[in-house]
Amino acid sequence: xxxxxVFLAVEGRRIVLSGGGDAALAKLRLLLKTEAHLTVFAPxxxxxxxxxxxxxxxxxxxxxxxxxxALCAVLFYAANENDIExxxxxxxxxxxxxLTNIVDNLTDSQFITPAIVDRDPVTVAIGxxxxxxxxxxxxxxxxxxxLPVVLGPLARIGKAFRKMAxxxxxxxxxxxxxxxxxxxxxxxxxxxxxxxxxxxxxxxxLHRHRTAPKRPGHVAFxxxxxxxxxxxxxxxxxxxxxxDVVIHDRLVTPEILELxxxxxxxxxxxxxxxxxxxxxxxxxxxxxxxxxQGAQVVRLKGGDPTVFGRLDEEIEAVAAAGIGWHIVPGxxxxxxxxxAIGQSLTRRTxxxxxxxxxxxxxxxxxxxxWRGLARPGEVAAIYMGKKSxxxxxxxxxxxGADRTTPVTVIENASRPDQRILSTTLDQLPxxxxxxxxxxxxxxxxxxxxxxxxxxxxxxxxxxx
Length: 464
Ligand code: SAH
Fold this sequence. Notes:
Cobalt-precorrin-4 Transmethylase, domain 1, 4 domains, binds S-adenosyl-L-homocysteine, Rossmann fold
């Protein structure tokens, strides 16, 4: 972030602008929405400016700016449409202590003005650091369409009612009241009888929420998917929106944690490699303790919670404590990995079944039906298989698997740093963590990336 967005208190403060043409007018139309005192310096002001001055909405000086003219100003705009005059006036304003902006000159400006969606007192500021004004305009139009015009009055009435609503206990109860007001009861009352109806409805709404039975604690076991936030389900998004506490594992990316409700407590219960950082018992206790206190808990697991996630142990602990729960499935690493290489997990003429294997279990390297896997056409998605690559390779070759069986390792599937390693069973690096694969990686046994496959067959034709 080269520019940090803030909302500046301008009520009763000075904002100074230099310029009398179109650029100045465009800025003034925005600034006139504020409660700041506006002062304009323009030797040849546009007619609108003279009108605004006559209405007392700004102070107009029909001359060029001089040192001292921007004293005590919080902001200064140079809108002279003349580089030399812009540089001169902004130097004056800077010396006078104001933050300066030169219209359409990003590099010489100390601040820039965002695109604004105005539902006063709700304002949305959109910035692209000057990179894409088109994008800012598109986002603005999108938000304008989405935010009802009544949001402004609702927020104003709501603000005046805040003190009354403080009798509700902090946290969920109070939040539910406000959510009901802004998204349900408020807009409905506004539609039927305008602002007076909104005012009249508030006491009743408060009473209803005060006497409503308390929502009990609950645990949602939510799949976070392989890492790309766009691969979250809508239900996962909703659960994150409503969470009081989010207990996540190490696979969950920061981009996804960003989506949790801002007030939610985030707890990293990450486990690493072979040894857990937090024991399963500790995690179970953490989940049940929070839910017992009435929290809406999201237990957020990478991929799908039902795949190699020790989900059952957690469910049993929660159920034993008499707490309600449900599962929100997610996209598992195997699905993201085959998508990355353009393949299917099953294929009619190749494999009618697919196995999900773990490279290691509690006891160390995990044993599997190697004989079955060694047959031609078999496909397996191997989770947690980085350290066990050599062990798996050895077992499969021992049971007669074809040495040239394709093996594809997908690291960081679905993430910006995704990498694909295309190899064969006999060439598979023995320890993938030593083959510079540091992120989570899934090994697809029996599948090659489609492009690589095409290359190989081209090569075979050449050799034939
Ligand atoms: N529940 C998860 C799996 C947890 S086990 C799921 O459904 O995906 C952890 C293993 O998942 C990792 O060791 C790795 O093999 C695999 N994995 C998880 N996310 C991955 C990703 N983005 N890319 C590749 N492999 C991943």
